[in-house]
Design brief:
The chain has 122 residues and is mainly alpha-helical. The chain has a domain at 3-79: Helix Hairpins (Orthogonal Bundle), CATH 1.10.287. It has 4 helices and 2 strands. Strands 1-2 form a two-stranded antiparallel ribbon. The protein is flat, with a radius of gyration of 19 Å.
């Protein structure tokens, strides 16, 4: 399934089930799901409160739910999720963090092949 198709289907489902919702509700849902992802990851690393398989399944569910909530947020904001992910990925994939690193304490941050001096005390 393409992101655009997911976004369209999510919009139809959400409108049918909840009517028009403010964007912040989807944003809060996405953040909640990220918390669930962190919880699953942490408990998996600690080896407590369930099996590794359970934690992996919980993590997968949280990732998917996060994407669905972000599709809903994009619907509320009038964003095309697929286009913005593609556009941003096309920028990110050109970065080379092995040669354009952020050196702790210098305040020099790599910005698309250009360096921007920032106040390291902020």
């Amino acid at each position: 399934m393409r992101l655009r198709e997911l976004q369209q289907q999510q919009n139809e489902w959400s409108r049918r089930n909840f009517g028009k919702q403010p964007a912040y509700r989807s944003l809060l849902g996405a953040v909640e799901e990220l918390g669930e992802l962190c919880h699953a990851h942490l408990k998996g690393e600690q080896g407590i409160r369930g099996s590794q398989e359970k934690h992996l399944l919980d993590a997968e569910d949280a990732v998917a739910d996060t994407v669905i909530f972000l599709a809903s947020y994009c619907n509320s904001m009038g964003f095309d999720l697929e286009s913005i992910v593609e556009r941003t990925w096309n920028t990110v994939k050109t970065r080379d963090w092995r040669t354009d690193t952020v050196t702790a304490g210098t305040g020099i941050i790599a910005v698309q092949d250009e360096y921007k001096q920032e106040d390291a005390t902020k």
